[in-house]
Specification:
single chain; mainly beta; Ribosomal Protein L24e, Chain: T; two-stranded antiparallel ribbon; about 10% helix; rod-shaped
């Protein structure tokens, strides 16, 4: 499984660094994903969740 948010499906962003001489090199921006023990469909699972989803209350943490 790819490293993406379980709730909003946020994953890495790929683009180019473009220099003044117009040289292009790959650039990757990774989201702030955390492993969380959460309740998913009534069972406890370890999932990846972005910090925005955790903060917004989409994640119900397991005790």
């Amino acid at each position: 499984m790819a490293r993406s948010c379980h709730y909003c499906n946020k994953k890495r962003l790929v683009g180019n660094n473009v220099s003044h001489a117009n040289n292009k090199t790959k650039k990757i921006s990774l989201p702030n994903l955390q492993t969380v023990r959460a309740l998913v469909k009534g069972s406890v699972q370890r999932i990846y969740a972005c910090t925005r989803c955790i903060r917004s209350g989409f994640v119900t943490k397991a005790a």
